[in-house]
Input
Amino acid sequence: DVKVTQSSRYLVKRTGEKVFLECVQDMDHENMFWYRQDPGLGLRLIYFSYDVKMKEKGDIPEGYSVSREKKERFSLILESASTNQTSMYLCASRPGTRYSNQPQHFGDGTRLSIL
Amino acid sequence: DQQVKQNSPSLSVQEGRISILNCDYTNSMFDYFLWYKKYPAEGPTFLISISSIKDKNEDGRFTVFLNKSAKHLSLHIVPSQPGDSAVYFCAARNYTSGTYKYIFGTGTRLKVLA
Output
């Protein structure tokens, strides 16, 4: 079974802090994704990475950056946290494009509150 | 601009009856569609998918129908069970920047009444 692990289930930070959300997968997947889930808005893609050290902006990258130094780990960074970044953050992974019909596998999410 | 829409935020169905969840999309370049199920405090889990070259895919109690001309897909659950109560997301896929990108709908909360 694929395991996607997000380091924290709940996190409370202050406005202006630099925040790191970590995600690790154990299936040697090439593609990794960060989403945020908000009521009435569904899942929105922040950033994704199709290989180590590669990253692409998703639909809402503003205020975020990412790091993928190792294949199994994909980090989301809030450079200077703001209250509108309070949300549920979900990490996902999937095999590379040669496995075209394999779905994404999600972690259990990190509920982040910015005070 | 919401490319994938789930217009019903919630749905209640009696146990044993059919649940029908709907999803509309606007981008004709989507080549693959998926349904995910999400329980509270857990991540979404993959349920069923369908390629754009098919119009139906069935897996046990779950069937997904695709109507390409209408840009519409639906998920049928028969018979519905209380354990099916969850939020259901549809997702559509297109190929961009060397990989697959997934666009999700806003979700439909299904409640199956015992």
Notes: The interface with chain B takes residues 4, 9, 31, 33, 35, 40-45, 48, 50, 56, 58, 90, 92, 94, 96-97, 100-101, 103-109 of chain A (CB under 8 Å). DSSP finds no helices and eleven strands in chain A. The CA atoms of residues 31 and 91 of chain A lie 11 Å apart. The first strand of chain A starts at residue 4 and ends at 6.
